[in-house]
Amino acid sequence: MSTPNEQLSPAQNQSGNVLPEGKPATATRSLASHALAFIDDGSGIRVPVTEISLEPSPNGDANPPFRTYRTAGPGSDPVRGLPPFRAAWIAGRGDTEAYSGRGRNLLDDGRSAVRRGAASAEWNGRARP
């Protein structure tokens, strides 16, 4: 069972039970020494990081928090992917052209897929316009 300050693994839900295969999971609680923060350089893109507070050095000097990239969240679900938050910016530039792409080819998954006669799971996320 999880305590209020225990970080959940991506495979666990709020009650600490392992989630079924393919179900998205996001940790909503964290350790007391961990804090969610965002790095924002003014461009409008905020990068999520986990700030981990560190103990003071042996001589008593304080240490700044250690920042590590936060991989949990909507982008961590490979089936859904990220929302197209740059789509308007890309379209506004006027230097791109949308196309439907090409169809899937079994050879795209490599020779082992051809040998077994089956492709890997197809992308089920949001289609491009």
UniProtKB/TrEMBL annotation:
- Give all residue intervals belonging to the ThiC-associated domain: 43-97
Query: Region labeled Disordered — which residues?
Result: 1-26, 52-81, 98-129
Q: Where is the composition biased (Polar residues)?
A: 1-17
The protein's name: Phosphomethylpyrimidine synthase ThiC
| Species in which this protein is naturally found | Arthrobacter nitrophenolicus
